[in-house]
């Protein structure tokens, strides 16, 4: 789990009165906050309607950065911190699209870096861009990282063990998506590349692994299909998102090992009693073939250390309830459960692992519908804080 999570495209809804949601101004619409005729520099960070702190004008009109502190309490890597700078820019929109009232999500791009007390660090840049009135989408990410993590053996012949290891290298994620007609369906193609040196902390621990587990290069091509009817994509209040995707890694694509990864997930958002939003999530991930141990899927829930429960298959269910108590502030509670199975246990034999937590949100950019906040989550013996930019689900 990552402490800061900025999604591919921003949302379009917020609140105007306590308990009454409102569709937020589109970056290209007349509702976008404008600076008064005479204003100070600080007015760039206040909303012209309610005069609260708001960064819409700074982000969209002045092309300023949203600086996000990264505060890490992730159990897998220890405490740490860093910073991310995120920029927003309205994409080009045709006159025909404007006349139809289409609200195009802005392009998002930025850089980030962090380091933790156990020596883990990472830095990189990435962005999400939209073309031809959002007919085409591109998402790209490049980075360098060194992670000090733990792998947990199954305990088939020996007692279960926690094995420390290091991953050091570069990674790249490139994806292009095409809208299918006038629908909310997108077909996508992606290329994922990693050049990673993996080393165990203790030589005696190599007995638990095979040489294929230490493959250096992983290069895979994948296809996906998604449907997105959410009212916005950073802090949704209504609609659905589902995705089905698969990626094949093979020497023909530059990979050392041959294996496949799969993911299918569904998010649903339901607004009721005006100020309440219920989000539901179902997520399944799988890997087959000669998969390096560190690329096995892991239960991904706030409060559970990354990599704590890994196997050939993982499944998760999660719910989140948000209450918009004022036009700017919201509180939420969440909880979920997951199972990992495949190598030694089937689904019915695997343990269920639970996590839950609470958090708050502040509407930092009304024109984007962009909320930021903090979550506190806990599970079986672990707990962590997460700074959130937009939705925690990705």
Molecular structure report:
The chain has about 400 residues and is mainly beta. Helices cover about 5% and strands about 50% of the residues. It is built from 2 helices and 18 strands. It has a 16-stranded antiparallel beta sheet. A two-stranded antiparallel sheet has the order 1-2. A hairpin with a 4-residue loop joins strand 14 and strand 15.
Following the backbone from N to C, one meets helices and strands in this order, namely EEHEEHEEEEEEEEEEEEEE
Number of strands: 18
Shape: globular
Helix segment count? 2
- Which strand order does the major sheet show? 3-4-5-6-7-8-9-10-11-12-13-14-15-16-17-18
Please state the oligomeric state of the protein chains shown. Answer: single chain
Largest sheet: 16 strands, antiparallel
Uncertain residue segments: 1-31
Query: Class by helix and strand content?
Result: mainly beta
For the termini, the CA-CA separation is 10 Å
Radius of gyration: 22 Å
Mean pLDDT: 86
User: Beta-strand level of the residues, as a percent range?
Assistant: over 45%
Helix content: under 10%
Question: Main attributes?
Answer:
two-stranded antiparallel sheet; globular; mainly beta; 2 helices; 394 residues; disordered N terminus; single chain; 16-stranded antiparallel β-sheet
């Amino acid at each position: 789990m990552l402490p800061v999570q900025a999604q591919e495209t921003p949302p379009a809804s917020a609140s105007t009165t306590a308990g009454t949601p409102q569709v937020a101004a589109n970056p290209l619409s007349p509702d976008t906050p404008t600076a008064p005729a005479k204003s100070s520099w600080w007015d760039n960070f206040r909303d012209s309607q309610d005069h609260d702190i708001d960064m819409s004008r700074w982000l969209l009109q002045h092309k300023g950065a949203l600086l996000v502190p990264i505060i890490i309490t992730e159990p897998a890597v220890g405490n740490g911190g860093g910073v991310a700078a995120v920029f927003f820019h309205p994409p080009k929109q045709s006159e025909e699209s404007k006349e139809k009232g289409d609200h195009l999500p802005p392009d998002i791009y930025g850089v980030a870096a962090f380091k933790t007390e156990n020596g883990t660090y990472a830095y990189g840049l990435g962005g999400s861009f939209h073309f031809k009135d959002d007919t085409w989408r591109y998402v790209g990410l490049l980075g360098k990282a060194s992670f000090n993590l733990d792998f947990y053996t199954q305990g088939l012949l020996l007692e279960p063990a926690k094995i420390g290891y290091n991953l050091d290298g570069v990674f790249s994620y490139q994806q292009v998506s095409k809208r299918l007609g006038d629908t909310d369906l997108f077909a996508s193609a992606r290329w994922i590349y990693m050049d990673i040196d993996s080393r165990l902390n203790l030589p005696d621990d190599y007995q638990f692994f095979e040489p294929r587990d230490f493959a250096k290069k992983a290069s895979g091509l994948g296809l996906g299909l998604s449907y997105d009817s959410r009212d916005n994509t950073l802090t949704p209040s209504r609609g659905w998102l589902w995705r089905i995707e698969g990626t094949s890694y093979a020497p023909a694509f530059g990979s050392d090992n041959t294996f496949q990864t799969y993911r299918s997930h569904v998010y649903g958002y339901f607004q009721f009693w005006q100020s309440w939003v219920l989000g539901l999530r179902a997520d399944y991930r799988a890997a087959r073939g000669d998969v390096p141990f560190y690329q096995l899927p892991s239960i991904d829930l706030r409060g559970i250390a990354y990599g704590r429960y890994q196997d050939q298959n993982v499944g998760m269910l999660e719910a989140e309830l948000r209450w918009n108590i004022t036009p700017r502030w919201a509180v939420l509670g969440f909880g979920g459960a997951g199972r990992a199975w495949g190598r030694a246990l089937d689904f019915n034999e695997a343990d269920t692992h639970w996590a839950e937590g609470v958090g708050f949100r502040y509407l930092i950019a009304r024109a984007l519908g962009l909320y930021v906040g903090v979550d506190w989550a806990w599970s079986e013996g672990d707990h962590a804080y997460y700074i959130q930019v937009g939705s925690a689900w990705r």
